[in-house]
Amino acid sequence: MSARRALAVLVCALAVAGCEAHSIAPPAVTPVPVVTPSTTPSTPPSTSSSAPKPVLAPPSATITFPRAGSGQWRFPTGEGPVAGQSGRLLRYRVAVEGDIVGVNPDAFAAAVESTLGDPRGWTGGGRWRLQRVGPDGPYDFTIYLATPTTRDVLCGRPDGYTSCRNGNSVVLNVARWADGVPGHGAPLAVYRQYMVTHEVGHRLGRGHETCPVPGALAPVMQQQTLGLHGCTPNPWPYPDGSQYSGPSGEYDDPIPRGDS
């Protein structure tokens, strides 16, 4: 789909009452390889025993981006190690929209790999193995870091604020990657781990969950971007080595307007 047609569909969805809904596929992308220079427990865990531990360094540069990007992508080359000891192998690639300044694609790939390879993540249960691959090899899904309007096109539903999964597209909104969300209460590095794990969880077939008990960890499939509802931040499905989840469902939380 051309960028002009994708934006036309988006404008239609935003501006015309009764406009027919369309399932929007990801826009055509131009891979620009980046070359690196050679140089459910029975009792919810308490926060005291299961506090999430950041494994990513804090941001070292200011991230800037336009609201509407070009839809051109930078893909890191090469592939990472296979994360996980058993289960079905899914391969994924990562892409950073070219208009985003302050996010090195190789560093973004490393952050994603670190999160998805953590034993507290989706490979911890032995059902999945995950591996990052380059732009040209076979892959099962793509993790995009996108500007807010491109996020709307890729997700097929506009809100400019959240991230999403749409088919084989896992779409992370750079506005959330750069600034997190007000009131989340965890370091930005932990919130980024949550973003990756939550949206990849949808690709693995998981639906939304709610806070099981006030004061407990939030399930990673809770919509923590929109509210914690008495739970505390948590980016992992296996925070203590055992699968942790909450009741199926979601809250009727309002979505803030735009990318603020």
Please tell me about this protein's structure:
The chain is an alpha/beta fold and 260 residues long. It has a domain at 23-35 and 64-203: 3-Layer(aba) Sandwich (Collagenase (Catalytic Domain)), CATH 3.40.390. Helices cover 23% and strands 12% of the residues. It has helices spanning 3-15, 47-50, 105-116, 148-155, 174-179, 188-203, and strands at 73-74, 88-97, 128-132, 141-146, 164-166, 169-173. The radius of gyration is 18 Å and the shape is globular. Residues 27-52 have a biased composition (Low complexity). Residues 27-58, 231-260 are annotated as: Disordered.
Q: End-to-end span in angstroms?
A: 28 Å
Structural class: alpha/beta
* Shape label: globular
Mean pLDDT: 82
Could you spell the SSE succession in H and E letters? HHEEHEEHEEHH
Largest sheet: 6 strands, mixed
| Fraction of residues in β-strands | 5-15%
Q: Could you name the CATH class of the domain at 23-35 and 64-203? A: Alpha Beta
Work out the number of β strands: 6
The CATH architecture designation of the domain at 23-35 and 64-203 is 3-Layer(aba) Sandwich
Residue runs with pLDDT of under 50 for 5 or more positions? 1-43, 45-60
Q: Percent helix among the residues?
A: 10-25%
